[in-house]
Specification:
Distance between the termini: 27 Å
Order of helices and strands: HHHHEHEHHHHHHHHHHHHHHHH
Number of domains: 3
Strand order of the largest sheet: 1-2
Helix content: 55-70%
Shape: globular
Structural class: mainly alpha
Largest sheet: 2 strands, parallel
Length: 441
């Protein structure tokens, strides 16, 4: 964080936009040096001198900094430090009239390397959720499109079919064609902006933008690009709001809350979900939001609220018209309810019941949801660590790591690495030395 009363140094802003503290940033620099077969002595204290004391990094260290910030080396002029450090974009497009296209374009521009993205403050996300819950969407274009060749039914149908195929692709396969998702969303955004459609087709285009934004956000999230992911979810929220799809809007807010919990900010997650639940309509959607709320409340140590949210999710799951379940939560099953309930109980200290639920849910998960299985397996490893069963925990963590590396799931790899420090207390347990060795770099 920047020193109180002082504008942040450009490096501070760029580092925090990457979600790195000074120690993590120093570690990333040392890894950049090792990739060149060299060594760097940069540590947390050195980074602080650069940011607070005005010390200029030497030319070699600046090349390592550039690599960590993903700045091409030809754009680095050591003499101009810190002018070459990319600026940081901040904030979210407020919900309101004519905000859909600006929000979509901001998300689509997040991969511009000349501008780094800071994390959107949790308070801003809660305010955005409150604005969504308390605001009726503005009317879309009338049945009098703008001048020019109108967008026809066949075009929108083709876009919908293409989006459906992209969204249905297995998670581990999406990484191979990730640019296609952005290109497809960019074309839909252009069509929305041009305004040459009737109101019914406009609703369909906005719904397409919302659904595809959600998919792209999850691709970014799975690869650790958190600031970009949040902007895609926000763009989807604007699109869903304009299309008057309240359940889809709740889904996108729920995803932002999931991200907040993942980044150890359960207060923000709970604040978002509490507001999102005010406008959620389908029981299946409400069940998922209550389950995610339970996870946030458990992390906050709120036992009674957690158990109440779990009970509500269990009561709602499977109710309502099964043919009307929103696609974005149609995957939710008793397996998900069991594992996430178990994880919440684990946070509350009920390790025995937590382990039972996680094991039951993992066993019931369909084979097609392989990434989710990997995440669940890391939860299982954590549930074994709580009662002091390092052998079982190491076996589960190793299985999750193997699976994550095979399917290309960086988020699951990150979960395993987060558990590794806890294995240090069991250096001689079966499987632990091998796991520590594999995760040492």
């Amino acid at each position: 964080m920047a020193e109180e009363g002082r504008a942040p140094h450009p490096l501070t802003a760029a580092r925090e936009a990457r979600g790195l503290n000074r120690g993590q940033f120093a570690d990333a620099i040392r890894k950049a040096a090792r990739r060149r077969g060299l060594r760097s002595g940069v540590d947390r204290a050195r980074v602080r001198k650069w940011e607070i004391d005005g010390v200029r990094p030497d030319a070699v260290s600046q090349t390592y900094i550039a690599e960590v910030l993903e700045v091409p080396v030809e754009e680095v002029d050591p003499r101009s430090w810190p002018a070459w450090v990319p600026p940081v974009d901040q904030g979210a497009v407020p919900l309101g009239h004519a905000s859909t296209v600006p929000a979509l374009r901001e998300a689509l521009h997040t991969m511009d390397r000349r501008t780094l993205l800071s994390a959107i403050p949790g308070s801003a996300l809660v305010i955005l959720a409150g604005s969504w819950a308390g605001t009726e969407p503005a009317a879309l274009a009338s049945d009098h499109p703008r001048p020019g060749a109108p967008v026809g039914e066949d075009v929108v149908t083709l876009l919908e079919e293409t989006s459906a195929r992209l969204n249905a692709l297995a998670t581990e396969q999406r990484q191979h064609i990730a640019p296609l998702y952005d290109a497809h969303l960019a074309r839909i955004t252009d069509l929305i902006d041009e305004g040459r459609y009737t109101r019914p087709l406009g609703v369909r285009l906005h719904n397409l933008a919302a659904s595809l934004s959600q998919t792209v956000a999850w691709i970014r999230f799975d690869h650790g690009q958190h600031s970009a992911a949040s902007r895609y979810w926000i763009a989807g929220l604007h699109s869903a709001h304009a299309g008057n799809d309240r359940d889809m809007g709740a889904a996108l807010l729920s995803d932002l809350a999931y991200q907040a919990s993942w980044r150890h900010d359960p207060s923000t997650a709970a604040g978002i979900l509490t507001k999102a639940l005010r406008r959620t309509t389908h029981p299946a959607a409400s069940a998922l939001l209550h389950l995610r709320l339970a996870r946030a409340q458990a992390a906050l140590g709120e036992r009674r609220a957690t158990l109440s949210a779990i009970n509500t999710a269990e009561r709602l799951l499977g109710t309502g018209d099964p043919g009307d379940v929103p696609a974005w939560c149609s995957w939710m099953s008793p397996a998900d309810l069991a594992v996430d309930s178990g994880q919440a109980l684990l946070d509350l200290g009920d390790t025995h019941r937590a382990h039972e639920l996680i094991r039951e849910g993992q066993a019931a998960l369909p084979a097609s949801r392989i990434k989710t299985y990997g995440v669940f397996t890391t939860y299982q490893a954590k549930s074994y660590l709580e009662p002091g069963k390092p052998e079982e925990a190491a076996a589960a963590a190793t299985e999750a790591l193997d699976l994550a590396l095979r399917i290309g799931a960086p988020r699951c790899v990150e979960l395993v690495h987060d558990l590794v420090p806890r294995f240090a207390a069991f250096p001689d347990a079966a499987g632990v030395p091998e796991l520590l060795a594999r995760t040492a770099t």
